Structure formats: C-alpha cells, structure tokens
C-alpha cells in the first residue's frame, strides 16, 4: 500500500543483509545502503564482485590456516622460511602484524578463535589436534605461543600447552620447546599510562643489565 | 615475496572496496572482510547479490526522487494521495519518518542533499529547478518545507523559498502557500534537556490556549 512506510523490496533485502554484518546496526545499514544507491553503479558493483571473488578464491591455507588463494599459502610454501619455528596466533590479523615486523622468519598456525567454553569454543574448535599434528613433525624445534596478553589469550595458551604435552613422550623425538611472547612494557609507551597488570608483569619479568 | 605482509590479492581488493564505504576505516574493513570469509558462503553471496539487485532495480522516482523499483513510485502513483500538498525533505530517511506517522497524505520531493556551497552543493545540485517545475503545477496549493531544524536545514529552506518565488508571478496561477514544519518542544521531551535554541523557538512560537 502507498501509505506503508516500508521501502522498495530490494532495498529492504539489502538492509537485512547489511544488518547481519558485525558492528552494523539499523542506522549504519541505512547509511551504507543509501551510499550504495548514490555512488556510480560501477563502484557498488565492485564491492559486490569483491565479496564474490574473495569467497571463490580464498580458502584457509592447508598448513597454517591463514586465508590464502593458494594451497599451501605463499608463506608456508616459501623455501626461505625457518621450518623449526611454529608461531601460534589467534587470528590472521595477528599473523599480519608479526609479519610486518620482519623479525620472524618461521612458520605459523592460526587458531581462528580463542578459548571460550561458555561460547562453545573448545580445544576442538581451536583446531588444537591439527596444531598438535603439525608440531609433532620432527623439524619443529620450538612452538611460540603468541595469543593475546589477556584472560582469554592466557586460557588459550594453557590449552595449547596441554594439547602439545604428548609430543615426544614416546621417545620417537625430543619434545619441542614451548615459548610465549614476552610480557612487559611496550616500547614507546609510558609507564604512567600502563595498566597495573602490565607494570606488574614488567617487574616480574625484569632482566639483569640494561 | 613470502615475507611481504600483504594478504591475498582478492582479500586486499575486498578491503579496498570496504574502506570506500562511509564510516568504515581500515580496522572495520578488516573485521568485515574476515566476517565475510568466515560465514557460510551463501550468506556472503547474499550480500553481494543484494547490492547487485538494488542497483539493478532501484532508480530515483521520476517525480519525488525517492529510491523506487517502479516509475513513478507507489506513493506518487497512489490515487488516494492529496496532490495539492508537496512536502520537501532532505533525504529518503526523512520521507520514511514522515510516512511512518500516518499524519501526512500528500506527495513528496526528496532533495537528496542539503545546501552546502563550500562542499559544492548549490541550488543546482539540490534539484531546485525540478522542485520548482513540480510546484508550478496548478494542483499544488501548498509546499511544506521539512528540512532539518538546524543551520544547513535553515539555509536549504531559504534556497527553496527563493527558487519558488517566481511561481504565480505572471498571473497564470496563484502562488502556492509555502510553509515549514513547526519548531518547538518535542512531544515526550523534557524542557530541562532541550537546547537553548529549541526553548527560544518554543517561546517565540507560543500559541494562545493549551
């Protein structure tokens, strides 16, 4: 009916899909939809095509599970990487942040989530069996845990240690070293702006010399 | 190169398109992209299809310029609407808000923007020529200006009055009444929470009786 305040059907359908995105409420969805109606058609279709293409081309890497267009991904396939190091992160964004430093030349494993039993994310959902199989390879000498320095990250790190406990137990190989990213003051930060846990960690982990 | 921190090409392309959306920065774009990679494929493609469909089906209504799948839109085409009233809004969202009240049964004109000479939005960009042609129809007895009650809305309202000034000047018809939405206290609001301008407007526009 003409007096019905509901918009055109295809616009309502778009609003519905936009509202399913994380962090997008009804108002943001309306703003985005009107933007997509207003820009040149080629720009709106470029977004639609980019979504379609990313789903056609990208799969989790068969080894590290980071999003990749090839299997295995370029990082896992690169002969120059140090295969004795396996660094475990929660999310692909963490992997990118570590890569951007240029300080790490080993391999990766992306959990894709963090331990949260209340939300149904258990060792199974984190793929710890898969991590354990990768870490069991004789060439892996060290597993570096780089989960976030917070409660869920700590819980996830404990679950990883638990999952890797069996490696080397039957004597077929030595157990890999298991390490975790250091805690302390972030370089460039100021002590008075750090939270109490960060400062306590810095004291706890103090090292001789300067 | 394997040590390059850049992600897969199709993922970068998606990030680029997402960052062109209003209010979406690099962090939000990354969150949205990873969401679109993680959800079932059918859900990601539903968004892509909704964008494509909305651009295929929706055009501005040839009369009121609101987004519509038919020309003219259902509101402009409805025989029950009062064709002597033409209400001017800045955006389609304003039209929907007025429609939702059920209090208005006339026709609409959507400017699609507000006057902002510094950003290049002049009378031309607002389509005031088009509005003037519509308002010149003999059946239009009143033009109701419903631009927002703020500085740009006031400027836009003045530009509308200016654009409609010529109608009826040559005596071929009477000039239409030009009115604007009332200013005052918003029903349901509390005086102590209103800004000074709103309270001053309420005093200025006071009416006899209760």
In short:
In chain A, 43% of the residues lie in helices and 12% in strands.
The rounded Rg of chain A comes to 23 Å
Spell out the helices and strands of chain A N to C: HHHEEHEHEHHEHEH
Number of strands of chain A: 6
- Percent strand of chain A: 5-15%
CATH class of one domain in chain A: Alpha Beta
Note poorly predicted spans of chain A: 1-5
- Name the structural class of chain A: alpha/beta
Strand order of the largest sheet of chain A: 4-3-5-6
Mind explaining what this structure looks like?
2 copies of one chain form a homodimer. The first copy, chain A, is an alpha/beta fold and 210 residues long. Chain A has a domain at 82-182: 3-Layer(aba) Sandwich (Dna Topoisomerase Vi A Subunit, Chain: A, domain 2). Chain A is 43% helix and 12% strand. Chain A has 9 helices and 6 strands. In chain A, strands 4-3-5-6 form a 4-stranded parallel sheet. A two-stranded antiparallel sheet of chain A has the order 1-2. In chain A, helix 5 links the parallel strand 3 (82-89) and strand 4. In chain A, helix 1 packs across helix 2 and helix 7 (128-135) packs across helix 8. The termini of chain A are far apart. Mean pLDDT of chain A is 90; it is low at 1-5. Chains A and B meet through helix 1, helix 2, helix 3, strand 2 and helix 4 of A and helix 1, helix 2, helix 3, strand 2 and helix 4 of B.
